[in-house]
Design a protein that fits this description.
Blueprint lengths: L4 H21 L3 H20 L9 H15 L7 E5 L3 E6 L6 H9 L7 H14 L3 E7 L4 E7 L6
Antiparallel strand pairs: 1-2, 2-4, 3-4
Helix pairs in contact: 1-2, 1-4, 2-5, 3-5
Length: 156
């Protein structure tokens, strides 16, 4: 394990960049990323956030999850802002996002930017609210803007 915070961040960058390239080589990057994020998130929430109780309101759940993940040390979510209601979340993710460097490199290389934070929030909502949310990275920048919208698909 790297001995410094910068070393740990660089290791994360290489891992996430490689994961994104592998996902694209399999032909369906969003499906691959959703699967990977779901497995890691379930374990993280069970171990690190066992008392996390979400609201049925998607916006409140995203805000509460980000604060709980921030308090657990997963990432610094203090520059994340959530607006919306029970069915639609409009989020702004600032410069403190741990994945920003990877997204910037991909953007500069002309590759698609797959927002890992968006996948994490969408999966958290699916796991905790038992509802699917369609997500969209509306703008990569400072801040990034994402939207999560409750899917119209219903379980049959």
């Amino acid at each position: 394990m790297p001995a410094t915070e910068d070393g740990t961040n660089r290791l994360l960058d290489f891992f996430v960049y490689g994961m994104l390239r592998a996902a694209e080589s399999l032909g369906n990057a969003p499906l691959f990323l959703r699967t990977v994020v779901e497995q890691g998130l379930r374990k993280f929430m069970l171990v690190n956030l066992p008392t996390f109780r979400e609201s049925d309101n998607a916006t409140e759940a995203c805000d509460a999850f980000t604060k709980a993940a921030d308090a657990s040390g997963l990432f610094d979510g203090s520059d994340s802002v959530f607006r919306g209601d029970a069915d639609t979340v409009h989020a702004e993710i600032g410069d403190r996002c741990p994945y920003r460097r990877v997204c910037t490199v991909r953007h500069d290389e002309g590759l698609p930017v797959h927002c890992v934070r968006t996948f994490v929030l969408a999966e958290m909502l699916r796991i905790r609210l038992d509802a699917d949310f369609d997500w969209k990275l509306k703008r990569f920048g400072r801040p990034c803007q994402i939207t999560l919208t409750r899917s119209n698909w219903r379980k049959g």
